[in-house]
Amino acid sequence: xxxxPIHSIIIGSLLGDACLELNGRYYRIRFDHSxxxxxxxWWKYKHLYPIAASSPKLIKVLDNRTQKMYLHFRFDSxxxxxxxxxxKWFYINNKKRVPLIIDKLLYNPxxxxxxxMDDGHRRTDCKALRLNTQGFxxxxxxxxxxxxxxxxxxxxxxxxxxKGQWVIYFPRKTAQCFCDLIxxxxxxxxxYKLL
Length: 195
Known about the structure:
This protein is α+β, with helices and mostly antiparallel strands. The chain has seven helices and ten strands.
């Protein structure tokens, strides 16, 4: 396992938008964010500098669903043996999954903050929050819900979005507790996601 805060940033990122890729003998992790999140990706780079292969670069990315081009910032970590354990935890048959031992990995509010900055949003119609978990299986989301309660005392629910897709829903009372827990780790530029 990598040292803190690198470990927690990686855990939060892998629950969010990041992915691991085998690059030769070792894995690397890819961080990719919209150009609108420039400060956020540079914050990640600053904290992950010891394992970063290069600084974030502005690139054009084709969205296969819409066939539109978008500007993104992207950087990769170095390909290092220490990332193999993260790949073992997070990937089954090349599909990203929630690790069976997520209760041992997701213990730091920093990891929650990174996950939320990657994939969370504030509901505009009520004082509630959501974490976009549509890429995970139902059983993975159940595991995350259990860990959020056991490790942080957060009572959340799984909300159905469409066939085979769910989000994690933070009702009003829990949403405020969650925001208070992660607020000190959330970048000012991402503060709009908080209550």
